[in-house]
Amino acid sequence: MRLISWNVNGIRAVSKKGLFNPCIEELDPDVICLQETKAAQSQSDVELAGFEEHWYSAEKKGYSGTAIFSKVAPLAVTPGLPTTSVERFSLQPDEFGDPNNEGRVLTAEFPDFFLVTVYTPNAKGGLERLSLRHTQWDPAFLHHVQQLEAIKPVVFCGDLNVAHTPDDLANPKANVGSAGYTAQEREGFQNFLDAGFVDTFRLFHQGNGFYTWWSNFSNARARNVGWRIDYFLVSESLVPRVVAADIHPSVMGSDHCPISLTLSPA
């Protein structure tokens, strides 16, 4: 099974540019996980033959949102974080809204694993949402995937809005303490690894220069001055099935590029 994850930064914008369907044709996935769709399903003109679509849009129009398109019909699809995780970590609305009403988490159950696509809240330029990230969101999301893992293995993917190590961004020294590279956010990612989840890309690729997001300024993408903030993580029990994990920087249409994961049959 081949899966891709892509923060499209507005699915209508990518589609209008004529760049969405060519990406899907090139990467030939069985399952597509999207973040930052910025639309309801009724607003999208994307048509992919053979794919079943599941959307979770934010209550706020034109904001955030996730979706899963799949050739294989999921057994079930559940939007949002479960109440148990929300209540356990007191995930509450802040000045920007209710993070659990922003279409950020969509969970699909397949016969042999759960698949979760996530668009993690950005800490914001002034770090206004850093506390929410560190003390509420990241722990609640980890709790969610651990609860799923107690039932069957988990694959989770998406824009986690953090560069984990100095190798995951082009200018680590200059960005220490900046949104996406604070000690708190990096700790949140490390907690996923400490819980036994595996960063699949690092099974095949080491070192720097591999990025998934680039600023729209200063010709950053052409110069490859970017950040790796999009990931596929899997339960340790799934690692023997991981055939490939890649980044596809040549695919245009968003300030993020797609990433892919290939799993062998169970």
* CATH 4th-level superfamily: Endonuclease/exonuclease/phosphatase
Class of secondary structure makeup = alpha+beta
Give the count of helical stretches: 6
Number of domains: 1
Number of strand elements: 14
Global Rg: 17 Å
Strand order of the largest sheet: 3-4-2-1-14-13
* Sequence of secondary-structure elements: EHHEEEEHEEHEHHEEEEEE
Q: How helix-rich are the residues, as a percent range?
A: 10-25%
Which of globular, elongated, flat, extended, rod-shaped describes the shape?
A: globular
CATH C-level: Alpha Beta
**Overall average pLDDT:** 97
Annotated CATH topology: Deoxyribonuclease I, Chain A
| Proportion in β-strands | 15-25%
What composes the largest sheet? 6 strands, mixed
Named CATH architecture: 4-Layer Sandwich
> Which regions are unreliable across 5 or more consecutive residues at pLDDT < 50?
none
